[in-house]
């Protein structure tokens, strides 16, 4: 049973710490540079080594996966993500989970050294999540949804009471919207059409404040 949701905001990116009867599930981790703030938030929530049951990574970009390896080593929690994101975190290159971003590659090329996982922060996931998987064994009544579009292996977490942790599939940078950095526009459209039919109470995006799904025009 979910007891609380704690939003961890690191400059421009969010992670979410969900407390349940079994302990805690962390959805995304922020960048490696946010580590001290992240650990402070975990301690303040009462999450100590052994209490963190699972780390779910919505996609392999370093602003979402940067502290996953560190937390696994220090808190003992397994890391879970979609198989299509594995190469990105194993090799530290966010473009390995994308196929159609020539413009974004050109724009971000000068920043690629900053937007790569350092060797010490790279990792191999402990388990792979696919569409329809459940998280009940980790104390969270929730379903995994595969929502490609931003990246090929983007996933979201939908709890049974309607909380939707979207990663970068949905965002609220300036207003609620679907992803603005898009790998596959057609896949993103199909993902959104599917999600619109679900019983979602609140969207918790990777960027920006929570919102309701009907705020997306």
Describe the structure.
The protein has 217 residues and is of the alpha/beta class. The protein has a single domain, classed as Ribonuclease Z/Hydroxyacylglutathione hydrolase-like (Metallo-beta-lactamase, Chain A). Helix content is 22%, strand content 26%. It has helices at 35-44, 62-65, 68-75, 86-91, 102-108, 185-196, and strands spanning 2-10, 13-20, 23-27, 52-56, 78-81, 127-128, 142-146, 155-159, 163-167, 170-171, 177-178, 202-205. The strands form three sheets. The chain has a six-stranded mixed sheet. The protein is globular. It starts with a strand and ends in a 12-residue tail after the last strand.
Brief summary of the model shown:
With 217 residues, the protein is an alpha/beta fold. Helices cover 22% and strands 26% of the residues.
SSE layout and pairing:
Layout: E1 2-10, E2 13-20, E3 23-27, H1 35-44, E4 52-56, H2 62-65, H3 68-75, E5 78-81, H4 86-91, H5 102-108, E6 127-128, E7 142-146, E8 155-159, E9 163-167, E10 170-171, E11 177-178, H6 185-196, E12 202-205
Parallel strand pairs: 3-4, 4-5, 5-6, 9-12
Antiparallel strand pairs: 1-2, 2-3, 7-8, 8-9, 10-11
């Amino acid at each position: 049973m979910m007891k609380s949701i704690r939003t961890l905001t690191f400059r421009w990116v969010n992670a979410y710490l969900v407390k349940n009867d079994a302990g805690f599930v962390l959805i995304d981790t922020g960048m490696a540079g946010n580590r001290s703030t992240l650990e402070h938030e975990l301690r303040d929530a009462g999450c100590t080594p052994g209490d963190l049951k699972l780390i779910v990574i919505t996609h392999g970009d370093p602003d979402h996966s940067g502290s996953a390896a560190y937390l696994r080593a220090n808190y003992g929690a397994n890391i879970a993500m979609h198989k299509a994101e594995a190469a990105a975190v194993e090799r530290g290159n966010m473009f390995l989970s994308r196929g159609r971003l020539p413009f974004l590659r050109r724009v971000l090329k000068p920043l690629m050294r900053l937007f790569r996982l350092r060797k010490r922060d790279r990792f191999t996931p402990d388990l792979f999540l696919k569409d329809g998987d459940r998280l009940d064994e980790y104390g969270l009544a929730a379903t995994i949804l595969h929502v490609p579009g931003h990246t090929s292996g983007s996933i979201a977490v939908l709890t049974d009471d309607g909380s939707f942790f979207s990663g970068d599939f949905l965002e609220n940078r300036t207003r609620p919207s679907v992803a603005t950095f898009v790998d596959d526009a057609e896949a993103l459209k199909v993902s959104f059409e599917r999600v619109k039919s679900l019983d979602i109470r609140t969207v918790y995006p990777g960027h920006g404040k929570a919102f309701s799904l009907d705020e997306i025009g």
